[in-house]
Write a structure and sequence with these properties.
The chain is of the alpha/beta class and 303 residues long. It is built from 13 helices and nine strands. The strands form two sheets. A seven-stranded mixed sheet has the order 4-3-2-5-6-9-7, with helices on both faces. Strands 1-8 form a two-stranded antiparallel ribbon. Helix 2 packs across helix 3 and helix 11 packs across helix 12. The longest helix is centred in the middle third of the chain and has 17 residues. The termini are far apart. The model has no long low-confidence stretch (mean pLDDT 90).
Length: 303
């Protein structure tokens, strides 16, 4: 017996009388053409296990099960949705999809990836039109998991295609010397190849936000720095306390370090004290970590 034709996402939202909730930072992609391009920017999905973060009414989910650029569906899809109003949408989608779709009601920040990914042979793809309010903390959580090889990254082959505010996307991908280079630039780029895969003007969202967005693709790789994640984050966070201040001043502000200690450490690292943090490349952070650790100042910087 043939499957019944599916209703459009917009029709389903009208039937169920569902609207975006401001407190959940919900902005939906209802245009199927835009949703397909978003998913196509994630690359080949055939033979992968896709985890979709915050599917909402399922626009991206339909594009995912259609198979992206190769029109070959993934081996499996898991969608994680916090808002219970969208569970009927997603359960209907699961019945019609050409591949297995697991619908999980829960918060992605508390999600058990180990339980959801039982087959270690399947490459993982993480895709999501993220609520802007959780996008940055979620990314930092993923970066920590990448370095620790935990969660979806425990077997290595996991790529991310996530939607951020354009301002955040620009920071994630900002090169050395860029005025918008920041903590998130260094932390993402030291362990991932990053790129803006697909710009999303604010006009494609419902309701329309006040800012444009972009899909950022992050492909994990071997870390460029032989520095523990927590220690790198401590140093980077301190140096980017203020992008307008010099690295010397940022190391001194609010710390117990003495000026002569900071000067000696920067000299040992081969760094000019008047440099600003956005002028440091990954190798500079490696040398600064070495100098701070050798001098014992790194322990003094810990909270």
């Amino acid at each position: 017996m043939p499957r019944p034709p599916r209703l459009s996402i917009a029709d389903l939202m009208r039937i169920y009388r569902v609207r975006a909730r401001k407190e959940l930072s919900q902005n939906f992609l209802l245009d199927e053409r835009v949703a397909r391009k978003f998913v196509q920017s994630a690359g080949r999905l055939a033979g992968t296990h896709v985890i979709e973060v915050g599917p909402g009414p399922g626009s991206l989910t339909w594009a995912i099960v259609e198979g992206g650029p190769t029109a070959q569906p993934p081996a499996r899809v898991t969608v994680v949705e916090k808002d219970p109003r969208f569970l009927p949408f997603l359960e209907q989608l699961a019945e019609l999809a050409p591949c297995p779709v697991d619908v999980v009601h829960g918060d992605i920040l508390d999600f058990n990836y180990d339980a959801a990914l039982p087959d270690p042979t399947l490459p993982v793809r993480i895709i999501g039109n993220l609520p802007f309010s959780i996008a940055t903390p979620l990314l930092f959580g993923y970066l920590k998991m990448i370095r620790g090889r935990t969660g979806p990254f425990r077997h290595g082959a996991a790529e991310l295609s996530l939607c951020f505010q354009k301002e955040v996307a620009d920071r994630i991908t900002a090169p050395v010397h860029s005025k918008v280079r920041s903590r998130i630039s260094v932390m993402a780029q030291h362990c991932c190849d990053v790129s803006v895969a697909y710009p999303l003007p604010r006009s494609v969202f419902v309701p329309q936000p006040k800012v444009d967005a972009a899909v950022v693709r992050l492909v994990p790789r071997e870390p460029a720095l032989a520095v523990p994640y927590s220690e790198l984050d401590l140093i980077v966070n301190r140096l980017f306390h203020s992008r307008r201040k010099t690295i010397r001043n940022n190391l001194l502000v609010g710390s117990v370090l003495l000026p002569e200690q900071v000067d000696a450490t920067l000299e040992a690292a081969g760094l000019a004290p008047l440099l600003r943090p956005q002028n440091l490349d990954l190798g500079d952070f490696q040398e600064l970590h070495r100098a701070l650790a050798n001098s014992g100042l790194l322990d003094l910087m810990r909270p």
